[in-house]
Specification:
hydrolase; mainly beta; hydrolase activity; Allophanate hydrolase; three-stranded antiparallel sheet; globular; RmlC-like_jellyroll; single chain; about 0% helix
């Protein structure tokens, strides 16, 4: 399986493998990805324009709202939700988006990347 660095502003260390990509000629916006977060890697802070489903396949995925998800956890984000995902310990995630996401600037405090949430 080929892993490609996800080079985009606000992202650090995340690698991805495309399962399928949008097909503009058919009006298809969805994308299916496998994401690999080495320890300390993070995505950008963004807003979802459609639904996103994330299934943690291995490791721990940290959400900017303070929740951490472990192997087997399913996360569903609806349109209009905003977050930044990271991993202190490393993880692999299946991610499916029905529409693209748009980079945003947080308007309220969020969990800093690499910080453990308070109990």
């Amino acid at each position: 399986m080929d892993w490609v660095p996800w080079s985009e502003p606000g992202r650090a260390g995340v690698e991805h493998h495309v399962l399928w990509a949008p097909d503009e000629s058919e009006g298809e916006d969805s994308v299916g990805l496998l994401l690999r977060f080495p320890p300390g890697a993070h995505g950008d802070f963004h807003e979802h324009l459609g639904h996103e489903l994330m299934l943690v396949l291995d490791g721990v995925l940290d959400h900017s709202d303070g929740i951490s998800y472990v192997k087997g956890d399913l996360v569903v984000e609806g349109p209009g939700t905003e977050h930044q995902m990271s991993s202190r310990t490393g993880c692999t995630v299946l991610a499916i988006r029905t529409r693209p996401a748009a980079a945003r600037t947080p308007q309220k405090p969020v969990r800093p990347v690499g910080v453990t949430a308070a109990p």
